[in-house]
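Collaborator request, handled under Task 6.
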Amino acid sequence: MGEIRPKTEDGTTEPQEPERTSGIVRVVGVSPEIENEALEFWKQKFDNQELHETEREKAPDEIMMIKKVLAHLSEFTSIYGGKPVPLKMENIHIIDPDQFSAEAKQKLGNTKGWYDLSSQSATIISDRNNIDKTNLFHEITHELMHFSEFSSLMPHTVVEKDGSSNTLMAQRRNGFSVAVMKDNKPEFYFNDLNEAITEELVARFIDKYLLSDQSVVSSDYFMKVINSLGHGDAEGSKFSIPDIDKYLMITSFSSRYNEEREKLWRLIVDIKAKNSDKFKSPEDFFNIFAREYFTGRLLPVARLIEKTYGKGSFRELGKETKAKNQFKK
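Structure tokens returned to the collaborator:
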């Protein structure tokens, strides 16, 4: 049987959206021709990966971990309505920590990886002589989750001091965060929530695909996650967290974003309490955040927050949770 595709109001078949060919899903504010040209440009970036100057070959354990994540990431993305990115081993780059100068290490802080839109690559910092499987699995999954989140670009005109102007493509959306241009630089509203959602998705990914893998479940890190999940009930409230502080403590798993996760869950639990007729558990509401993260459809969350806290509250939440610095991880 052929694929059944939805109909429009006049009875015609809706055009099917193209498959995702890179980390970029859309380019808004331009003609369809320019959008197609831009998407092809990013596809070429994605397909033709260049070796980083300080990059090294991946160790066997690192290759094993990347393969395990890639084996399930497309399905996981689709569960929440997202379009999977056709990621391959070449899109992930490994750099030893000793390749960074003292100044660079200080700037990076405890950052262990990042997704770079401009090169369509994920970079992971890993010591070949002391591979930490616990944190490395987490870091790989976190950065590839960012790679898979909804991402769009927009044209932005920069006016120079001499009055001349130049139109460039600027980031508009990545996951739940929204770029607001200020002095020709983007400020990422909702960034804290975006990182928190990413971390929660990492936990769910591990729960769904990796807990039965003995090569993965061999450390206290993953046992903490296992013990925190329990078995759920008929309503599927596995992550209902009646005690937020206890939940966060148990599932901290070396996360750099526990403060952001706390903000997210206190918001979710409060909204659930104020809309108990709509949600059986906080996890039901988290799923709305997760679908928006992968699809870019912000309206359902925005409407619910405005309904709960009043007009203008969604934008205020964006300001309160915007990126504290512009180094995207």
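The cover message to the collaborator said: "The radius of gyration is 21 Å. The domain at 26-148 is CATH 3.30.2010 (Zincin-like). Please let us know whether this matches your experimental observations."
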